[in-house]
Write a structure and sequence with these properties.
Elements: H1 5-30, H2 34-65
Helix pairs in contact: 1-2
């Protein structure tokens, strides 16, 4: 089954939110350590990929509309 870029983008955004939540919890419990920075980096990559996929979806829709 082929997934649309919109669905993939939403999944990436949700994963980024989840990693952000875990990073906040980890910083509150243990402070800024390696694992906290790793979670923040993963959240950043997921948010970036999610936004890129959603923009790609709308660009495809615009091209198909013409």
């Amino acid at each position: 089954m082929k997934q649309s870029p919109l669905f993939s983008g939403i999944v990436y955004i949700l994963l980024g939110s989840l990693f952000t939540y875990f990073a906040i919890q980890n910083v509150n419990e243990t402070g800024w350590g390696f694992f906290s920075y790793l979670l923040v980096a993963l959240a950043t990559f997921d948010f970036g990929s999610g936004i890129r996929m959603i923009l790609f979806h709308f660009k495809l829709k615009n091209i198909q509309k013409k």
